[in-house]
Design goal:
α1 packs antiparallel against α4. Strands 1-2-5-3-4 form a five-stranded mixed beta sheet, covered by helices on one side. The chain is an alpha+beta fold. It has one domain.
Length: 180
């Protein structure tokens, strides 16, 4: 786990390992998904209405710890959608680096991050099963995590000024005395 922390010291703005019971859940968060505010609802397995059941996401409620980290990205202005997309992809790469390290360390985990999935050029939802279930990063909204409250309750700054976007990841970890 030390290698993961070393990476986050360099590549994340803030990071912290918290107890899983410090995550704030709010069932109203899922309504944003159902309202399709991002345009991705029911367009991929990871954003499907049954993703929680399909991928057994409620299992994380039995996990002990959560690695939470964020990164702040500069925008030209608050309408700079292109930079938001680019920085979102960059942040997802950071999550994938962390997940890769956790895999190497054989630490049981379930990663959450930005909404949507970019593993396949086109998702085969709902015709065929997901080709890469072990590589998925689930949207925090899919499990009703209230990121703003969880972040601020744990000393993270949620809003980081004008012309900035802040992305968060929360990786649920099974407690293993040898690793965490």
């Amino acid at each position: 786990m030390e290698q993961v922390i070393d990476l986050l010291k360099i590549e994340a703005n803030q990071y912290k390992i918290i107890k899983a019971n410090e995550i704030v859940f709010d069932e109203s968060i899922r309504k944003y998904c159902q309202a399709n505010t991002c345009g991705l609802y029911n367009k991929s397995w990871v954003c499907s209405e049954n993703n929680r059941k399909i991928f057994d996401l409620d299992r994380v409620k039995s996990f002990d710890k959560v690695l939470i980290f964020n990164q702040i990205y500069k925008l030209e202005d608050s309408f700079d959608y292109e930079s938001m997309v680019t920085s979102g992809k960059e942040f997802t790469l950071l999550i994938r680096k962390v997940v890769g390290m956790l895999n190497q360390l054989q630490i049981v985990h379930v990663p959450f991050g930005l909404g949507g999935c970019d593993l396949c050029s086109e998702c085969e939802f709902p015709q065929k099963a997901c080709k890469h279930p072990s590589k998925l990063i689930y949207p925090v909204e899919s499990i009703d995590i209230m990121v703003s409250k969880t972040a601020t309750n744990n000393g993270f700054k949620y809003i980081n000024g004008i012309n900035n976007v802040t992305y968060f990841s929360m990786i649920f970890i099974k407690d293993d005395k040898n690793h965490v």
